[in-house]
Amino acid sequence: MNVILQSRATLFSVPGGDTVQIIKTAEALRAKGCSVDISIELEPDLSRFDLVHLFNLTRPQELHLQAMNARRQNRRIVLSPIYVSYREYEQNARGGLFGALARHLDAGQIEYFKVLARAVKNLECSKGTLQLLVHGFTALQNDIIDMADILLPNSESEIRRAGRDMERIRNKRHVVVPNAVDENIFAPDLTGHPEGEYSDCVLCVARIDGVKNQLNLVRAMKGLPWPLLLIGKPTNHRSFHERIKKEAGPGVQLIGEIDNAELPRYYKAARVHVLASWMETTGLSSLEAGAMGCNLVITDRGDTRDYFGDYAFYCEPDSVESIRAAIIKAYDSPIDPRLRQHILENFTWEKAAEKTLEGYRIALGKD
User: Fold this and answer.
1) Range of 209's domain?
2) In the prediction, which pLDDT does 102 show?
3) What percentage of the chain exceeds 70 in pLDDT?
4) Using an 8 Å Cβ cutoff, are 221 and 190 in contact?
5) What are 302's strand-pairing partners?
6) How far is the CA of 218 from the CAs of 131, 154, 324, in angstroms?
7) Looking at the 3D structure of the chain, how many domains does it have?
8) Confidence band (pLDDT; 50, 70, 90) for 129?
9) Backbone phi, then psi, for 253, in 5-degree steps?
10) Contact between 281 and 158 (Cβ < 8 Å)
11) Is residue 137 over pLDDT 80?
């Protein structure tokens, strides 16, 4: 089977969870004998591919052109929505002019203005951007859904949540393809000595961003006896990064972005990993930390319960007290080896590839 995986133009220049998902999906599919290309082109030649696999419905300006291109060339379309909604954060926690504006807009309008802002500020402008600005964010999303032959959400929770926002999704056939962890990298027995100065710390691995909510995490850790380590690249929200540095006490360290291969040592050193985000479809760093033997504190917003069930300690991102209470409970609880077992039994890239191939067979009419 010859497959092309396509997504947003900034997939590699501004990497995120979707970048990891695409790269690891490609690797796992190749291990099963597929020929796989990754492309951010808008209108490539598809003559040698059996189908097109699109990722990330929250960037419809690129996906719409890629889907139209696939339809023109009579190729079947598989869509991994990776559907996120930051509406609660935008309307309740984001500051500045955009936050004030967002409180009076619906989700599609909020995303429309974000695309417009990126076009002006970051020069992220293409034919797809112009289409979106003319026809609207939601209209492009609906067209993509209509063109897709099958959806591959990361959880049942995601498809239900997306269906509440977009009626057209409710009648589409879907196969759940779990997000995953690389058990060959995130394996305690294969990891070197942990970082001594961070032994038994509280850790958060995520981009430094308002959605990831590190400011409330810093506030929740005040007065607690354990060090807090923040690993992640600051985004364009520079004022948010500055507020974290201003409020962080001597027990908080920010060490920026590090190579993925170095992360296991920090996970191994930590006792608790926290991802108190305003929204997570999965929380890839939570999967990695859980596989490395950390107790997990994770947001209750999004689809996290489909992954972690009763193995995690949940918190409310808008409540410093809730985050603090969950951290204390997680830190004082013994490490549960069943969490790592649960992750390795259900959320590996090999299992994700198996479910992806099931979706491909359905799209091609072979199942």
Assistant:
1) 188-346
2) 62
3) 92
4) no
5) 280
6) 41, 30, 10
7) 2
8) confident
9) -125, 135
10) yes
11) yes
